[in-house]
Every structure is written in structure tokens, then in C-alpha cells.
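Subgroup meeting minutes
Present: P.N., E.W., G.H.
Scribe: E.W.

1. P.N. recapped why we're keeping a running log of single-chain structure predictions: easier to compare across weeks, and new members can see raw inputs and outputs side by side.
2. G.H. added today's entry (387 aa).
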Amino acid sequence: VGPELVRIFHWTERDYTDIVFWFQVAYGLGFVFAGRFLDIIGTRRGMAWLVGAWSIAAMLPAGLGSLLGFKLTRGLLGLAEPGHMPAAIKVMTEWFPRSERSLATGIYKAGSNLSAMFLPFIVPWLFLTYGWRPTFLITGASGLLLLWLWLWLYRPPRESKWVNAAELAVIESEPVPPRAPATPWRVLLRHRETWGYALMKLMTDAIWHWYGAMFPLFLMKQFGLKLKDFGLPLFVLYLIADVGSIGGGGLATWLIKRGWSVTRARNLAMLLCCAAVLPAVYVPHAASMWIAVIIVGIAHAAHQGLTSNLFTTVSDMYPRQAIGSVVGLGGTAGQVGSALMTLVTGWMLATGQSFTVLFTIAGTIYLVAFGLFRLMAPRYEPIALRV
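Output recorded in log:
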């Protein structure tokens, strides 16, 4: 609803990018503390607190109508929302052996794409039928339903009533270390693999979040789309993304089960995904909206396939008590990149420049990021952390 809010409140493009910027700053800070919080309190309780907090934060804009109010409430949402990612990677580690985690992560990420496929139909209907305030209330309150489902369904494998002995044997086919205190950040930051992961996230998340915030604005400016027109294009975009999410994670799993080393299998999958992003440089020159949507859809699929493997490298290299913290640090780095990309976009659009340079960055930065990550994390093998 961003473009519609711009129209209703007479915001400039710079005002809109400022709201996105403050969300991203808060999201980056929230990532660090959410990962640490989850390592200390545990996955089930920690995720419950975070989902409850972000559901309330997502509802708060309904009571406001000022630019400052949107900046503050989206900032509160940004502080609470990032916990889903380190929690998810911890869940993958608790429930799946190493060879299956990238596929499991891909399926998890496909779930987020599934919601993104249908929300472009649901949210415009809510907006056009009831107005913007009920739209924020209803979408925010949906998180409270998910909170109830999470508390009802989720338990570690040994505590779950839905796991039998044979399944537990598969899940625990690799040794499960005893619960240990969370690893201090200073220990994690001694390792170049931590910095490599953070740098990869900084460069690639900048583009992923940029698409989410700016691609509807691009479609509006370039092809004249209105809110009611976004449903089908965004449905197709995220449908394509789902293919990449499961396919990218599944490729590495398939290769590992056929004897490839973890490092070699994940590297091939990530390299192919990074190369598939390159056509994005053509988007500003696309002759039709559908060509632009399909190219960005492929870029989304490639990003999802990449991150299905990239997240899994954390569980490949770090012990369980460090996973939330490392994913949190990477998430913060990603939001720094996102905030910088948003500032650059706001400045370029405010000075009358086109999207051409921005899409050139979006198409080429993945291969550069992958090359740097490979230099800093040459093998995805367990790291000995010395406190």
C-alpha cells in the first residue's frame, strides 16, 4: 500500500524512502538482539515473545496518520520482526540432519513466498473495502493467530508427541551436543567466516529488501500500475521465487546425498543462483511489465535459492549455541546494506535520476558478494570456537 499512502498523505518519494529507511535501521538492530535473545532463552519461548511483539507493532499504524508516526511504528516493527530468521535456522538445526537442512530451509522460505503471493490480492481488497486503518489492524492481528499455532505445535523433537523413535533416530543421526551457554560476540568476531557471512548478507539483502520496498513503486512509475493492479504481477513474481527457494536448497541436498562434499555442493548451488540474477540489469529497458516481472521473479528465485544454502552454511560451521547470534549479526549487516540502498534510491529519485543504475547494481552485486564470501569462508566445516 506504499504508493497509495504516498497519495493519501501527499508524501514525497523522499518521505516514503525515509519510512522504509527507519524500518530497516530498526530491523538491523533487532536482528542482533533477537539472535542473541533466542540463543539465551531458547527457540520456542523466544519466538513466541517476538511474534507477539511484532503483531502489536504491525497494528499500531492504524491509530496514527502522521509521517513521524509511521516512522516510529515501523521502527518498532523493525525491532521485533527479525527474530523469525535466526529462530528458523535454529529450528532447522534442531529438526534436520546436516544433509537435509538446505532443502528444509528452502521449504520454510517457500512458506514466506506463499503468503507474499496471496497478500497482493488480500491487502488491496481490504484497503479498497475498509480503508487503510483496518488493513493495518487485520494484517497485524493475523500474527497473533500464528503465535497460538506456534505454541500449540512447536516442541523440540524429543518433546514432540508427533515424532516416533525411528524419526528421532534420523533427526539425531549426527551427535547432538549438550546445551551450552551462548557464545560471546567477541569470540564469533575473531573468525573470518563470521565476517564473510556478514558481508555476503550486507550485499545481497540490500537488493532483496530494495525489491520489496521499491519494485511496486517502479511498476507504478514505469507502467502506470495502481493498487488494484498489483495482485497478479506480484503473485507471479513470488510463485517463481518459490521454485528457486525449494530448487536451490534441494540441489545441494541432492548433491550431498550423491557423495559431493558439503562445501562443493553448496558452492555450486550458490554460484548458479548468483549468476541467475544478472538479467536484472535489463529491467529498466523492458518493453512490457510482464518482462520486468519475470526477470525480477527469476532474481527473487535466485536469491531464495542462494539464501537457502547460505543460511545453512551457518549451521554447517557453528555450534548450536552460536547459530542465533551469527544469523543475527548477518541480518544486521543485511539491514545496513538495505538502509544504504534505500538512501541511495531516495537521493537518486529525488534528483530526477532513473532506476537504470539501481538495477545494474542489483544484477551484478551477487557474484561479487559470492567471490568475497568464498575467500573468507573457503570450507563449510565445523569451527572450533575458543572462549
